[in-house]
Amino acid sequence: MKRFVRRWGRMLLCLLILLSTAGLSAAGYIGKDTVYRSYAADFPREPWLVPVMKGIHDGVWPWRVLPAYADGGSPLDSLLALLPAGEGKKQDEAAETAAADPAEDASAEAETAAATAAEEAETASEASSREETVEATTVITTQGCVKTAQAVQPGVIPDGVCSEVVPAKDYGSAAPAFLSPDDTQYNRDTEGMFAQNGTYYLLQKVDRSYLKDALFIGDSRVQGLWEYGGITDVASFLCKESITTFTILDETLQFGRPGENPQWMKLEDALKSTSFRKIYISLGINEVGYPDTESYYHHYRSLLEKIRGLQPDAIIYIEGMMHVTEELSRHDIALNNRIVVQRNKAVSTLANGHDIFYIDMNEHFCDDDGNLLAEMTGDGVHLYGSYYSRWTDAVLENAVIRSEEDYQE
Amino acid sequence: MIIFSSISFIFRFLPIFLVIYYLTPARLRNAVLTAGSLVFYAFGSLPGTALLAVLTVGNHLFGTAAWTRPGREPSSLQRGLGLAAILADLGVLAACKVLGRVLGSAWLPVGLSFYIFKMLSFQLDIRAGRIVRKPDMLSTAAYLTMFPQITQGPIMRYADGGFDERLPRETSLRNFADGLFFFVLGLSMKVLLADRLAILWSELRRIGYASISTPLAWLGAYGYTFRLYYDFWGYSLMAAGIGTMLGFRFIVNFDHPYAAVGIADFYRRWHVTLGHWFRDYVYIPLGGSRNGTLRCIGSLLAVWTLTGLWHGGSLNFLIWGLLLGVLIILEKFVLRGLLQRVPLVGRLGVWILIPLTWVIFAFPDLGELQVYVGRLFPLFANGVAVNAGDMAKYGGLFWPYFAAAILFCVPDFYGFVVTRRTKLPVVLAALALFWLSIYRIVTSAANPFMYFSF
């Protein structure tokens, strides 16, 4: 008997691996139409345990496939429930599990993006009436539509404006490589970029003191600007890598202010804690893989409304996503400049020229075809540390001054 | 699938192959191993598989024609045939390397350098009378194509056994269990250490070498050092583990190199099968250490030039190889007394010089190498837009991987784990590492729709 145990004891690891593989595969199979639906289990290309692993990554534990735990909770909770002392903890954990369910959130959000956006718009408009200036703009993607962009003629100064009208290219390059494909039409194309009240602001050059009440919000690219852009001593940053327009309101971000240790906090808390005069937003590259520009537009819009509600006096700059290199763009089905340009074009319509502006700095980093120059990047997406100062320069060359409160030289 | 640390290999190819292999009678297993290996390799590239098959058949025909019974002198025709096979193998290796340089390394057949070296050792061992039984076709084919070794070695010798009845394979539950344990251990090293540390290296690339601080440059050099070690050691353990599951003897390819007392000692412990290959087929035939100092120095330089070129065709590999050759010559003829009196000097040498040599190894672009060395030793070059806080950031992110990497460099720790591999705590730890590795493989797979994280 002892020999038998010793002999098979050697096989324990093998048996455990076999059993756990069988268990996880069964979970994947059982949950393929329920909890793992959103992972699009691709059998037979992938084994059933792959969606289970992806689920764990998003906090969806395998026992959720069991009917008893379908609504959250875990076998551990059930055990704890048997102990009188475990009551409080059980409730806490159950609440947490129920709250954190990004996988379902992701799919649900995609489906009800418009509804969410509308709801948030309502909430935000209660907080501030400025949202009304951002009117509903529909983004239509149709084959063969004629573009209706109204190019603003350089040199023509509209009534009530003392300075020259900013040519459309300053809100994004006018070169064909920077424009959206012909089959894409955005209603109110450039119209919304300019102020509703007839005031036109010229983008102008300022010095870095302009940024002393500025906040940069965004993903790893903004993180790079923070670390290498040379403005840590003046500007504030709120960023986290892999952030998207639909996660930015929920996740904890790194909030860095000049001369202070960075803290982790949510966007809402950061914007409640300090008021800013300028807010730069640079987002989008982490979600180019999501199929639709319209939901990107709506999430972006919700974000703007949220920010506007919390910071009524700030100039909001929508920074067009920086393009990627030609090599990446050519080979990647999602990370390509066609999609980046399309997305930029969509969110540029959110600018109103009054307190929301769109700035596109791709001219500073791209070749004539609109591809990020390969010598500026190691991975095709992020600038080398030594090139972030160009981003800083681009920001300082495209500043809006509405009043003396915005900037004093 | 051609990578061991992939879901399709671990959950598809390997289990299916093992079931078929174990259901097959022992005498047919060479055929199963060959067929399975060709299928495995074909998932990487079909033309590559054709080349491998042609080379295998060619080497077998020429090799067996050149083979003689032990003690009998081969005829001059046999010698000629053996030499022709060697030259043909070398020619294919050189041609592919040149084409790889011209057309891009993606064009190179996977594992070419490894399997050509096995073919060369096959021919040279026949020539030297080390293969005592005339191999049959399937034995040769199983040896040359076997999938555990085809992509990254180890460079096993035919005479190590397992291919014919003289030294049959020993399949047993014990071997199977041991093999699985080492496979899991190797998988964890590769996925949980090497692949994580590789992220640090790509972060440095992303920042741009000119903009990293000197402390971060050193952290990067050690990160690269450990990444290389656990990548290759992990892969070797996986290969040896699969081999053991199939009944072959366990092949030691890494023997705690970072516990070495000098550079020469380091390379006796690093990629052992390649070291032995060069020792047996280059160093000793050229005179080795028994024919005077000059011959010895010449042999060492030849070995290290070839070692450099074997790793790649660009100049940095040559510099890397020659530098190691010079260091080993210095150790052997100039510093020998000092190293014997104060072993700490040798140990420090390993921990300081070896990472620096890996930096040379890392950069085929000498311009980039120069920038990186400039950041390691900032006396001669200034950084551009350096963020002084970068070391704190990346040190904070990566210290657990460095801690684990250093821990596994301690031979006693590794020995402690390995000798207790059937004890419950170690089994449970291995199970946890296995699933953690699988989790990492799944979640870091290139899936642009779900896992962009910039």
The description of the largest β-sheet of chain A is: 7 strands, mixed
Count the domains of chain B.
Answer: 2
Would you report the number of β strands of chain B? Answer: 0
SSE run of chain B: HHHHHHHHHHHHHHHHHHH
Given as residue ranges, the uncertain stretches of chain B (5+ residues, pLDDT < 50) are 446-452
* Overall pLDDT score of chain A: 74
Computed CA radius of gyration of chain A, to the nearest angstrom: 25 Å
CATH topology value of the largest domain in chain A: Rossmann fold
Q: Counting H and I runs of at least 4 residues, what is the number of helices of chain A? A: 13
Question: β content of chain A, as a range?
Answer: 5-15%
| Residue share in helix of chain B | over 70%
The coarse overall form of chain B would be globular
Percentage of helical residues of chain A? 25-40%
Written description of the protein model:
The complex is a heterodimer of chains A (409) and B (454). Chain A has two domains: 15-107, no CATH class; 114-397, Rossmann fold (3-Layer(aba) Sandwich). Chain A has a seven-stranded mixed β-sheet, with helices on both faces. In chain A, strands 1-2 form a two-stranded antiparallel ribbon. Chain A is elongated and about 90 Å long. Chain A has 13 helices and nine strands. By secondary structure, chain A is an alpha/beta fold. Helices cover 35% and strands 9% of the residues of chain A. With 454 residues, chain B is mainly α. Chain B has two domains: 7-169, no CATH class; 176-443, no CATH class. In chain B, 70% of the residues lie in helices and 0% in strands. Chain B has helices at residues 7-23, 29-44, 46-66, 76-103, 112-127, 137-145, 147-150, 173-207, 214-245, 263-269, 272-283, 293-311, 315-333, 336-341, 343-362, 366-376, 390-407, 411-419, 424-443. The two termini of chain B are 27 Å apart. Chains A and B meet through helix 1, helix 2, helix 3 and helix 8 of A and helix 1, helix 8 and helix 19 of B.
